[in-house]
């Protein structure tokens, strides 16, 4: 086996081991804090003990599935509560292959590196469609890349790493292409609460037997460590996915499910809004400093990443480590996200010190 | 795809929906309560928030891996903290196949049904070795079943469903057979704290590059819903297993890991001992009633299940449902555990009402 280990953990370790103060903009770990109801929910759960500490239903706590189903306007039988968005994507991609309609995934370039990792792990192959420099995706290019060999098309909107948000027309076309080739569109929407454009459209907006939507509470509630997400499958595909979930993980952790359910029921909409506004401010601060540093970048429409290209400073792992040591700012090498971005670096705006990091970069590259 | 869904959840639902009082002896959900330190640990964790709510290292919290490594006398780099024993077995079996030394698993009959489920899901085939009626396993029969096609041998000791505990000589031979055929012995030892015989021997007792040990805190701490387990791989095999863990689940839930670590550090040995003694008493009570009912059974040496065969009452799903409705006792159909046990029923001794259940069975079959 030679599937690649995503680089995230390597860079995080390097930054943590550096001899100097480093602003960590590597991971997708939100720094803005969870809603109080997460902690309250865990406290409540901790006191239950006994039967409440035992196996939840494999597909997820009934009340949580009902809550998700009501919010997403689907039948609760279509919902599988997963070990984060990671397992949700694993189940969706495995399900696409199990349909035996092909063994190729159409992915974007740049790409979230877990998708090619999962592709290889599952014994499939990847075909890449380049996005525009601002991250927008032309569905016609996806159509050209699709074929009878296509098992699935995997997209992420709002997008990591580009910050692109696919509009309604793009999503409609992606669903249509999946139908044309009897493939499965896997739409990973874990950043759906971080749309600055108002253009975000879930793949669930289009009735289809050919799309799976994955999501997670990791970013929404700033609990990447809890591992609670979900996938919504068409009725015709959900049973086999539930079986794989059971045979892989038996069930998703119950303390986390309980806390998420409590938070869904008891979190004011102001929480989501405040975090989105915070991120919009950080985007402004950071991109202004990138202007000062003479960097290229696209201002993100959603999620919380900015890709930047500095003059004569390719986005290699070596250069990322140099930037940690010499500028005190840790980002991700663009090469981790595909061939089109080898000149770029990705910065996650998950630090209260975004302004400081921006100043450091402006100084370093000035 | 046609891999089977384990029957557990179906029978549990049927019992929950019955019109009468039912003693639930279906699941492996301990009823004796978690140590206080589990709840304390969760409370402590709930107050941490912020960075402590974010991704733990993919392979597990460092302190937890160190604690496990110290207790099992292995290097911490060999430990992967998993989403329960379920994921640990999934990683181990997938790792066996990834060695590309064969695509067959040698399993026992009776068998824990998740093993054949995983075998099929992973695209492999199963070859069964019958145990003796008391559940003991003759390594010579395993040797006869092994071949160049053998990717792995999967055993469970103490055993679910038979209650057998494999002794040192058996385990030594199983490791030797794995080495002879360059296969991987997967030794699932989740019931290691429930050995009544004193004969339990972990596969870790034998230095080998050909064995993986899986375990879980689900039974040890009565937290089947938390989903925290681990696998211990040989150094040469661990990296690829860690990559699969990352690509499947990203990481294991952090609240659960934190609570388990706290419980490992703060639980008196008396906790484990009291539960083992409780189970020994239940075995006595239950088997005495089986004598009264004219049933065949083997008294378990470990774990917390009893297989019983009643006169003219085959262990079908239909008969299990009839027993729920007519006797008020819910067990598992023996046919779920393999062809050799179609006449048998399995009862999990995870209810304070074991005596009542025993009386009901004795009355019903008298």
UniProtKB/TrEMBL annotation, chains A, B:
Q: Which domain of life is it from?
A: Archaea
Q: Name one GO molecular function term.
A: transaminase activity
An example of a Pfam family matching this protein is Aminotran_1_2
Q: Does the keyword Transferase apply?
A: yes
PROSITE patterns noted in UniProt = AA_TRANSFER_CLASS_1
Give its E.C. classification number: 2.6.1.-
Catalytic EC class:
transferase
Q: Which cofactor does it need?
A: pyridoxal 5'-phosphate
| Residues of the Aminotransferase class I/classII large domain | 21-360
Keyword line: Aminotransferase, Pyridoxal phosphate, Transferase
What family, per the record? Belongs to the class-I pyridoxal-phosphate-dependent aminotransferase family.
Q: How does this protein assemble? A: Homodimer.
Q: What protein name applies here?
A: Aminotransferase
């Amino acid at each position: 086996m030679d599937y690649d280990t995503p680089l995230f953990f390597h860079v995080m370790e390097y930054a943590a081991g550096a001899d100097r103060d480093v602003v960590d903009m590597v991971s997708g770990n939100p720094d803005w804090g969870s809603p109080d109801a997460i902690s309250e929910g865990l406290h409540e759960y901790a006191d239950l003990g006994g039967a409440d500490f035992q196996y939840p239903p494999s597909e997820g706590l009934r009340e949580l599935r009902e809550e998700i189903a009501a919010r997403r306007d689907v039948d609760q039988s279509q919902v599988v509560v997963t070990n984060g968005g990671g397992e949700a994507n694993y189940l969706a991609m495995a399900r696409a292959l199990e349909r035996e309609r092909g063994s190729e995934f159409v992915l974007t370039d740049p790409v979230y590196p877990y998708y090619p990792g999962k592709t290889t792990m599952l014994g499939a192959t990847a075909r890449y469609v380049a996005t525009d420099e601002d991250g927008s995706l032309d569905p016609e290019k996806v159509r050209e890349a699709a074929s009878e060999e296509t098992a699935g098309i995997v997209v992420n909107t709002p997008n990591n790493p580009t910050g692109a948000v696919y509009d309604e027309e793009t999503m409609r076309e992606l669903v249509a292409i999946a139908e044309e080739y009897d493939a499965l569109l896997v739409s990973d929407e874990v950043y759906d609460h971080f749309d600055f454009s108002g253009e975000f459209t879930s793949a669930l907006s289009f009735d289809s037997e050919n799309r799976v939507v994955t999501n997670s509470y990791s970013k929404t509630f700033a609990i990447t460590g809890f591992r609670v997400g979900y996938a919504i499958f068409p009725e015709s595909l959900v049973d086999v996915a539930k079986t794989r979930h059971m045979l892989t993980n038996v069930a998703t952790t119950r303390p986390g499910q309980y806390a998420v359910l409590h938070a869904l029921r008891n979190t004011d909409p102001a929480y989501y809004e405040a975090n989105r506004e915070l991120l919009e401010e950080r985007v402004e601060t950071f991109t202004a400093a990138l202007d000062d540093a003479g960097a290229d970048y696209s201002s993100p429409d959603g999620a919380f990443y900015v890709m930047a290209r500095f003059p004569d400073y390719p986005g290699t792992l070596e250069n990322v480590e140099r930037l940690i040591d010499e500028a005190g700012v840790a980002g991700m090498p663009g090469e981790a996200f595909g061939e089109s971005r080898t000149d770029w670096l990705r910065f996650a705006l998950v630090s209260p010190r975004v302004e400081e990091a921006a100043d450091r970069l402006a100084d370093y590259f000035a």
